[in-house]
Amino acid sequence: MTTPADAELDAPAVSQTTGRPLTKRGEATRRRLLEAAEQVFAEQGYHEASIVKITERAGIGLGTFYLYFDSKQAIFEALVIDLNRRVRHSMSEAMAGAASRLDAERAGFAGFFRFTAAHPALYRVVREAEFVSPDTLHLHYTRIVDGYEEGLRAAQQVGDVDRRLDPTVTAWALMGMGELIGMRFLLWERDDDGVPPDELDTHVFDAMMRFIDNALAPRGGTEGPTDA
Amino acid sequence: MTTPADAELDAPAVSQTTGRPLTKRGEATRRRLLEAAEQVFAEQGYHEASIVKITERAGIGLGTFYLYFDSKQAIFEALVIDLNRRVRHSMSEAMAGAASRLDAERAGFAGFFRFTAAHPALYRVVREAEFVSPDTLHLHYTRIVDGYEEGLRAAQQVGDVDRRLDPTVTAWALMGMGELIGMRFLLWERDDDGVPPDELDTHVFDAMMRFIDNALAPRGGTEGPTDA
DNA sequence: TCTTGACCTGAACCAGGTCTCATGTTTAGG
DNA sequence: CCTAAACATGAGACCTGGTTCAGGTCAAGA
After folding, report:
1. Who's near B25: CB < 8 A, 6+ residues apart?
2. Minimal Cα distance from B179: which residue of A?
């Protein structure tokens, strides 16, 4: 589950336009731009967002933007990649101490939902990547699924997961589930005052885990396989 | 599964701007606009698409557009609703002759995937609605899920589906699965010549059905419930 | 202190888009 | 055949926003 997500933790931070490495000052500016972009894209969506809004929020001159990013699209992609790193971090951290496979599964999803609940708008950004930068979204999903798949395969070896399941398809299935359920019960749900929940309703979470447990557990109780 | 999708089949077709009913000629123009919009939105995405491109493709004057739709957003929403009707139609048609619950499940997904494979780009339109018109997307999902949920509940009554599963959460889970798997194995997949598949790989489909079967089937073989 | 390269700036350029409107054309009914 | 209502048109008013550029400012080393 720990893909080389951590190797990329802090790349040398190079100017995208000139290719030169940045000084401390330059790096700080770059970071401020990214943070501003995060907020603006999240609040307004890609097309409503504008470079002006981003630089204004960052408290930086408009022209400065182009010293650090080639285009609006470029900073968006950088942002998605950054978010991907953070989601995976949240997931693998949550899974760290899990004993059994089911525990790990539960913890991984909990980590995922916690991240989504904590940054509801950010999640929107990732999903919008499907239309703004399909390749980046591709990367996002693939990176997450790869870790998942590996975990499933290992669990199958041990016999914790039904061996007849295809790990790849299963991983994508789980991922899709998590995503839509997160969207429905975290992003759409709000109480009477319009306040979104800060975590997934435990009933929903439990119901989902039951579903997953059913799906993954080897059939026929604790014995071996049953039917053809 | 047959929600009143068919009641809306052909509304009187009223001009969105004037509210007046349309003559035959007007109705034909409206239809041509919708068809052109379907192609243009699908190929280029919402923001790249333009009214000019749509009217050009429809072979219609620019100004005419505004006789039929209030805005770009308005025609987009009309399109999503139309697509929703068609997906559900494809699904319920496929499920029509199913004997068992599993059969129905299989057929429903097959219908869904068939539609996606036949109109890969259209599917993109629906997903983009998340950012262009969230309410419309909400409607889209809800309409599909509602039917699903009802089917699940009925199957639980009969004992075909694990009674401990929450029908709502399960319905959303299934929907999410189908969507991501469709995206991954239909929309992303292409052979060496870049040609997308015209149906879901049977291996993938079977793997997914196994997963679903596991998840839904009452635990403990054909007998009653087992653990707490 | 002076110099140099890195960093910063925002007015202006420009491409493209939506929507209006004054005008012309078609169709159906009397 | 004549008239009114419905339908069609595309130039242009108006606007928005990404990107460039010519000219500053800052900070660190000599």
Report:
1. none
2. A176
| Closest Cα in chain B, distance from residue A165 (Å) | 6
Kindly indicate the confidence band of residue A9, based on its pLDDT and cuts at 50, 70 and 90. Answer: very low
Q: Which of A77, A28, A33, A81 is nearest to A55 (CA)?
A: A33
- Which tokens in the block code for residue B188? 């992303």
Under 8 Å CB-to-CB from B227, ≥6 apart: which residues?
A: B219
Residue from A76, A131, A162, A163 whose CB has the most chain B CBs within 10 Å, to mutate: A131
Taking the C-alpha atoms of residue B55 and residue B62, their distance in angstroms, rounded to an integer, is: 6
pLDDT value, residue A103: 87
| pLDDT above 90: percentage of residues in chain B | 67
For residue range A59-110, what is the model confidence (pLDDT) as tens digits?
A: 999 999 999 999 999 999 999 998 999 999 999 999 998 888 888 888 999 9
- The whole-number pLDDT of residue B190 equals 85
Report pLDDT digits (tens) over B183-194.
999 989 888 888
Cβ–Cβ under 8 Å, residues A61 and A83: no
The residues, any chain, with a CB within 8 Å of residue A96's CB and separated by 6 or more, are: A107
Listing DSSP states for A194-224 in one string gives SPPPSS--HHHHHHHHHHHHHHHSPSSTTSS
A207 touching chain B per CB within 8 A? yes
Rounded-to-integer distance, Cα A79 and Cα A59, Å: 18
| pLDDT level of residue B61 (50, 70, 90 thresholds) | very high
Q: Confirm if A137 and A125 have CB atoms less than 8 A apart.
A: no
| Cβ–Cβ under 8 Å, residues A196 and A189 | yes
> Nearest-CA residue to the C1' of C17?
B50
Crossing angle, helix B120-132 and helix A120-132, to 10 degrees?
A: 140
First to last CA, chain A: 32
Query: Which residues of B are less than 8 Å from A45 in CB distance?
Result: 131
CA dist A92 and A104 (Å) reads: 9
pTM comes to 0.87
Closest residue of B to A121, CA-based? B131
Give the CA B61 to C1' D9 distance in Å: 6
| Angle (CA) A123 A124 A128, round 5° | 120
